[in-house]
């Protein structure tokens, strides 16, 4: 392709709306244009990148026995009502009505659709295992679309669903997808880590997120410096702490603490470490008010709390609700004598001896609070945030924190959807059994953005060669020099014949403009045809990532370029 024939509108200024690097560079380099908040048009350069990512995804899915199909984007409300998710999914679900006033939604995911398909077509254990996938647009009405393709309302996604006879066979399918995802992101040239995660609205018993490591990532992950352990910060957990039996419990005592509300203030008032304070947080769920107890130096992990309670929603209670539940203003709640609401304590709280906690009345705290003696929680569970610097549960190494961009996630759904929607099969004995399912998603458009977040410099994008829109650009220094233009055209033809995807910048622009655009767009190789090409028979080949420049003979260029690309 010649640049004069392409739609590739580059920009010199950084658009004001773009907060992260990938959004800025996708706009500046002419890859995308905004239609509405969270909705973008993909221009030709972006389409080439997306198609390459999709090809890699298809090859790895097919390698594991996946079969591609295509499911509808418009989904009837009945199937979401049947699964129980129509009222649960929340405002992110795009809902619409047809002319007959029937309810539909734009698919944010396809568990219901694929389960009903399999329910109607699979009868026997002999038809499984089954791996079905598609690549299509998805729709989620994000409250705050941001970061360009990182969090949009319309995006491209691959989702595969596995159907097995039992949990053991699901484990096999899950491992196949874990391997396939590892291959996909490795082939895309990304640095990533699979991490333990929460299954969220999708549900299921086990899940891993595939995180591209980047400072701009929305998700925080914890990983061990000595072993392979890694988890989303919402999922990371540690073993329960043991009680210090060497410290005798002292007598409970109420103390006046005027104006001391925060855990840090209370700890300073009593001359203790913040870890000796019991922080009592009052939450409202879709079912009830609950008190969550963690150490003063910890934060409540609301995802863990939601899962422990089996709730659909959880959020901090209002000041009025706190007052009604505890009899005290915010900052003075505590577990001693708290009778009106359910109480959930973190394991660490149960290991405290002679702690300090709110007295459920204004300007007062208890000291020498001891669990089991002074209060008994309704439930003891891991409900705290794990922090960097703590010890790894697997090997005792130190946990470190990094930012990550979620580009893929794999779930063990079990029978969550098959039981609800009646997807069953007849086993070897003719007995009806629920199909065991898995779900596996890759954000295709997000992967393109994540690749830029991880591969860029001050001049623009640095594409991994496997997903670059073109492998090389040929730039004649002077468009007015007929000899340079003809040689550039010949080299362009030779490279394309050898399978090197090449673009010819034949614009009547100054060389500096062409060089800046080449760096901005991020072609792995820049081939400059200048005066030496005609006088000495050599051209300049510059590698975008390393900046290395080689002078290569014109008659060997095509083969040499192909060799260089194999090493990138």
UniProtKB/TrEMBL annotation:
The keyword Transmembrane does not apply. Pfam families: HGTP_anticodon, tRNA-synt_2b, tRNA_edit. Residues 38-476 form the Aminoacyl-transfer RNA synthetases class-II family profile domain. GO terms for molecular function: aminoacyl-tRNA deacylase activity; ATP binding; catalytic activity, acting on a protein; proline-tRNA ligase activity; transferase activity. It catalyses: tRNA(Pro) + L-proline + ATP = L-prolyl-tRNA(Pro) + AMP + diphosphate. GO terms for cellular component: cytosol. PROSITE patterns: AA_TRNA_LIGASE_II. CDD domains: ProRS-INS, ProRS_anticodon_short, ProRS_core_prok. Its EC number is 6.1.1.15. One of its GO terms (biological process) is prolyl-tRNA aminoacylation. Keywords: Aminoacyl-tRNA synthetase, ATP-binding, Cytoplasm, Ligase, Nucleotide-binding, Protein biosynthesis. It is found in: Cytoplasm. It is an enzyme of class 6 (ligase). SUPFAM superfamilies: Class II aaRS ABD-related (SSF52954), Class II aaRS and biotin synthetases (SSF55681), YbaK/ProRS associated domain (SSF55826). Its main location: cytoplasm. Homodimer. Belongs to the class-II aminoacyl-tRNA synthetase family. ProS type 1 subfamily. Consists of three domains: the N-terminal catalytic domain, the editing domain and the C-terminal anticodon-binding domain. Catalyzes the attachment of proline to tRNA(Pro) in a two-step reaction: proline is first activated by ATP to form Pro-AMP and then transferred to the acceptor end of tRNA(Pro). As ProRS can inadvertently accommodate and process non-cognate amino acids such as alanine and cysteine, to avoid such errors it has two additional distinct editing activities against alanine. One activity is designated as 'pretransfer' editing and involves the tRNA(Pro)-independent hydrolysis of activated Ala-AMP. This is Proline--tRNA ligase. The lineage of its organism: Bacteria, Bacillati, Bacillota, Clostridia, Eubacteriales.
């Amino acid at each position: 392709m010649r640049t004069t024939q392409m739609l590739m509108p580059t920009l010199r200024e950084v658009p004001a709306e773009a907060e992260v690097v990938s959004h800025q560079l996708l706009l500046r380099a002419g890859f995308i244009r905004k239609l509405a908040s969270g909705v973008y048009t993909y221009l030709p350069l972006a389409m080439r990148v997306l198609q390459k990512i999709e090809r890699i995804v298809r090859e790895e899915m097919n390698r594991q026995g996946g079969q591609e199909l295509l499911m509808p984007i418009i989904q009837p409300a009945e199937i979401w009502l049947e699964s129980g998710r129509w009222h649960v999914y929340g405002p992110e679900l795009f809902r619409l009505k047809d002319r007959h006033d029937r309810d539909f939604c734009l698919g944010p995911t396809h568990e219901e659709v694929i389960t009903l398909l399999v329910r109607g077509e699979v009868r026997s254990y002999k038809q499984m295992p089954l791996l079905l996938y598609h690549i299509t647009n998805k729709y989620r009405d994000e409250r705050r679309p941001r970061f360009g393709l990182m969090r949009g309302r319309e995006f491209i996604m691959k989702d595969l669903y596995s159907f097995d006879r039992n949990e053991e066979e699901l484990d096999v399918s899950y491992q196949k997808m874990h391997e396939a995802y590892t291959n996909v992101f490795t082939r895309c040239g990304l640095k990533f880590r699979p991490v333990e995660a929460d299954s969220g609205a999708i549900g299921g018993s086990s899940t891993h997120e595939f995180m591209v490591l980047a400072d701009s990532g929305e998700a925080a992950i914890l990983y061990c410096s000595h072993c392979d352990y890694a988890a989303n910060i919402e999922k990371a957990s540690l073993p329960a702490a043991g009680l210090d039996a060497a410290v005798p419990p002292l007598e409970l005592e109420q103390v006046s603490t005027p104006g001391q509300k925060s855990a840090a203030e209370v700890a300073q008032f009593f001359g203790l470490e913040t870890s000796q304070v019991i922080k009592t947080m009052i939450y409202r769920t879709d079912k009830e008010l609950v008190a969550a107890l963690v150490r003063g130096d910890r934060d409540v992990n609301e995802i863990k709390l939601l899962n422990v309670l089996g709730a659909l929603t959880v959020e901090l209670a209002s000041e009025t609700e706190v007052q009604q539940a505890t009899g005290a203003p915010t900052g003075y709640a505590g577990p001693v004598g708290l009778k009106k609401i359910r109480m959930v304590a973190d394991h660490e709280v149960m290991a405290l001896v002679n702690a300090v906690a709110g007295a459920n009345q204004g300007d007062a705290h208890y000291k020498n609070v001891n669990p089991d003696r002074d209060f008994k929680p309704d439930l003891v569970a891991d409900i705290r945030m794990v922090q960097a610097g703590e010890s790894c549960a697997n090997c005792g190494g130190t946990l470190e924190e990094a930012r990550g961009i979620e580009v893929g996630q794999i779930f063990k759904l079990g029978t969550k959807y098959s039981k609800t929607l009646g997807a069953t099969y007849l086993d070897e004995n003719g007995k009806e059994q629920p199909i065991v399912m898995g779900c596996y998603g890759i954000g295709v458009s997000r992967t393109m953005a994540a690749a830029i977040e991880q591969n860029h410099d001050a001049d623009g994008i640095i594409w991994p060669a496997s997903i670059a829109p073109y492998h090389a650009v040929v730039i004649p220094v002077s468009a007015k020099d007929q000899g340079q233009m003809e040689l550039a055209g010949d080299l362009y033809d030779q490279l394309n014949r050898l399978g090197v995807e090449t673009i010819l910048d034949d614009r009547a622009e100054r060389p500096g403009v062409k060089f800046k655009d080449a760096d901005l767009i991020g072609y792995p190789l820049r081939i400059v045809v200048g005066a030496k090409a005609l006088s000495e028979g050599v051209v300049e080949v510059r590698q975008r990532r390393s900046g290395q420049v080689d002078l290569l003979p014109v008659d060997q260029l095509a083969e040499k370029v192909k060799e260089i690309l194999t090493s990138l």
